[in-house]
Each structure stands twice: as C-alpha cells, then as structure tokens.
Design goal:
The structure is a homodimer of 224-residue chains. By secondary structure, chain A is of the alpha+beta class. The first copy, chain A, is built from five helices and eleven strands. In chain A, strand 10 and strand 11 form a beta hairpin. Chains A and B meet through strand 5 and helix 2 of A and helix 2 of B. The first copy, chain A, binds a DNA duplex (30 and 30 nucleotides) through helix 5.
DNA sequence: CGTCACATTGAACCTCTTCAAGCGCCGTGG
DNA sequence: CCACGGCGCTTGAAGAGGTTCAATGTGACG
C-alpha cells in the first residue's frame, strides 16, 4: 500500500464553528428566477442551518460549499438523508415544519429565500411552477440515491463518486467537500469501509487520491 | 418452528395477466381536486403501466391495489424505487420522460390524469400548487425510505410494516398486496431474509401471519 | 514539539447472502 | 378424482462481505 505523499490544499478539514456571519441584506432583487433573490449568508464548517421541527418558512440555495440533511429522531448512528452542492436547492419537503435538520459540511454560502417573498411576487404562478420543478428534481435525486443504497459497498462508493462528478460540472478531479464520516453516513457504510474501498480503487488505478478531500477519476467510463 | 396452517384468502398470489380492461371513459369531471378527474382503469397482476423512457404526459393515482416503480437500466437484480398504495399519486418525477417503469403488484384500479388536462383548466394555478404538494409528499416518502435503507435487516422489515400500517388507515391487520420478492427488492434484501425475519418476529409474537399476504401487528408500539 | 481530528490499515466477528432442499396451495389434465 | 407441475414461501447450512475493535499514520495548529 503506497504511502500517500499528501499535499493538502486549502480545503483543510478543520472545525472552525464560529457564529454565522450574515452578509448585509441587499434590496429585494427584481430578478426573474428564484435564485439570487437575496444575498448569500456565510456559514462555517459544521454549522446548523435549520433543525427538524423548525417552522419551514424558507427555502435555501447553496451558493458554494456543501450541506447535509439528516434525521435526529431516530437514535443511534447518524444517518444522512441528502447532500446538496453549489447550485442545489433544499428545504423543499413541504409541510409546515422541517422533517430533517440541515448543516454545512464545510464552509459555505447559502441563499435563504422566504416562501412568503416568493408568493408575494406578481409572477408568483411562475414561482410555484419553478418550485415544482425544483422539488421534482430533488425527488429524482432521492430516488436515484435509493437505488444506490440497494447495492454493495463498492458500487455505492463508485456511484457516489460518479454522482459527485456529474454535479461538479463533469470534471475528472472532484472536491468532496466533506469528511469520510459524512460519506459513510450518506452511503450507509462505515468510515473504514469507505476508506478501504477508496484505497482499493486507487490501488487498481481507477482513481487517484491527491488528498483525502480530492479524488481524480482516472477513467470515469470504466467505473460502470 | 410451528408449521403454519395457512388458510388462504382470496388474495391468492397467482399470475393472471389478462390484458388491461379499460373502464368506459366518463365525461370529464368538474370536480375541484386533481383526483377523480377520470374513471379508473383496471389492471391485472404484474401488468405494466408505463415504462422508463416513455413520454411522461400523465400522472397517476392508485384507486385500489398497489403499484411498484423500478429501474431497468441497471442490470442485475431488480430494484424497486417506490411502492404506491390506494390514494397515492405517482409519476410525479417531472421531466419529459419517465425515469422509472411502473407495474401493478396485484390487481389494481388506476386513475390516469393527463397533464394537459390539468393545465387546461381555469383553476390551473391551484392545480400546479396541488401538484407541488403531491410531489413534496412523494419526496418526503422517498427520504424516509432512504433512512430505512441505512439500517439493518430487521429494522428494515419492521419499518416497512409500520409504514404499510400507517398507509393502510392504521389498522393492526394489514394487507401486503405484494409478494416477498417485491418486499425484498424494495428493502434491498433477499426473499429469504425477509421470510426469516418475518418468521422470527412471529416466533417472538410481535406479529402474526394468518397468510403470506396478511400481517397482524400484535403490538405496534413495541416494534420501535 | 505535542496534541487533536481525520484517515488508513489489520484481524476477528457477525450479519446477510448464496445455494439447496422441502412444503403448501392451486390449476390443469390424465 | 387424484396426480402432476408451477409458483410462492419457508427453512437449513456454508460462504462472502461489511462491521467492529484496535492500532498506526498524517497533516494542521497552538
């Protein structure tokens, strides 16, 4: 097993949970689409965004970074429901109260969009249709994740990497934006299994691991 | 291991895939809500409703029976994405084409609702909002299913039973509407594991199995 | 330099799968 | 009418894959 000569980038996985530092509120945008309706809020690593049970009066868009949603009601090990990367919307489950909690997995910028602000707009019918499209997209993502969880460990990890690659503009070098624990909790595996699987894929030169938070897919097509 | 003196009901799990027999089309309803916009179509057991790749020009509501959605693209063992019971809507994933296939698991009646018919109505803004609510509900269901798949075999089966109970009006005796294979493919287990787990739960008198397609939860609260 | 969080690696254990056999119900046909 | 065969379900024993427990490695920061 080759010892990795790690050259870590600036994505240092380090807990720096200072309080959230809201950027000053900009005047309400008159933009046509849901995004960019407000200035993004900056979050540190592992900072909560909302909790299960909170009133669900806003939806959210990831400007940069990464957000995990999870369920606290079920005791035992943490189980992630979803991961959201730059460009993704979350908090779309509907209902009066959130059914999951949301936290950043790394330093992130998040747009917070009040539902009332959406509905108050002249073009609110278009907004609802926009919301519908976003929710349907999240549904498709959840269903694809379901399929992934019906497979074995190696296929889960590979599926995760391919999904991440697709969501990160198709580059072969992808930034994970999260720790092994997040990956494991998202895939229903242990961190040991995730680590071993990645190591094996690297030893088979299917991937490279320049640093723990970076993965290079040497042959994305081969991974299927 | 007590031999079960099975007294089969009329839910005989038997292939009887006669051709679909559409009920005569009723005049377009002027009802206020999405459901009951058309007369239901009757399907036999294991009959396809739509296939992955078909144009998604309709949404569907289960009047009675049960529908499974699954993915055929990934080779290997069949993997169910979702199960829909009486009262549930499906086909809400959005997009121009279906990303899953849908089949009945048992004789069923299904409402087929054209999207165009929805959008053509005077109150189509309300219809879209209705669609949004239904899609968000399906999303919540998919996310709950995700959580289930992150657990062990016994918890999956118990979670499945509790989910079914909740969806069948909270009665303690529930009809499964499907075979062990469907359950296994939905939970990511083998039929043997499902069968064994149910047998063990019965031997611990947590449940009773009057017939393979019927389950009685002796103490729903205890199962958590 | 020492500490801390995260990641990796090894070995024993356990759960679920795989393979195999048998049972019960039902429909069919001799 | 009963024998046969298909299908679904159950049960057992061996095997593989992932977890658990434990130790070590690595980089960042004070």
């Amino acid at each position: 097993m080759p010892l990795r000569t790690t050259v870590s980038g600036n994505e240092t996985p380090r807990l720096r949970a200072r309080g959230r530092r809201a950027t000053p509120e900009s005047p309400v945008s008159t933009a046509r689409s849901i995004d960019s309706m407000s200035a993004p809020t900056s979050y540190g690593r592992n900072e909560p965004i909302f909790f299960e049970g909170d009133p669900a009066d806003s939806i959210y868009k990831v400007e940069s970074g990464c957000v995990r949603t999870y369920n606290t009601l079920d005791s035992g090990p943490r189980q992630l429901v979803s991961l959201y990367l730059a460009g993704d919307f979350f908090g779309l489950e509907g209902g009066d109260h959130h059914v999951v909690s949301a936290e950043t997995t790394t330093a992130s910028k998040i747009h917070v969009i009040k539902r009332r602000a959406l509905m108050a707009r002249k073009d609110n019918a278009a907004m609802i249709r926009n919301l519908l499209d976003l929710t349907a997209k999240d549904l498709r993502r959840a269903q694809r994740h379901n399929l992934l969880l019906l497979k074995g460990a190696q296929e889960r990890v590979i599926g995760f990497l391919l999904d991440m690659q697709e969501r990160e503009h198709g580059q072969n070098e992808i930034a994970l934006h999260m720790t092994r624990r997040d990956i494991a909790d998202y895939l229903g595996l242990t961190i040991e299994t995730v680590s071993r699987t990645l190591s094996r894929l690297e030893s088979e030169s299917a991937i490279s691991l320049p640093s723990p938070w970076r993965v290079v897919l040497n042959d994305p097509g081969m991974l299927n």
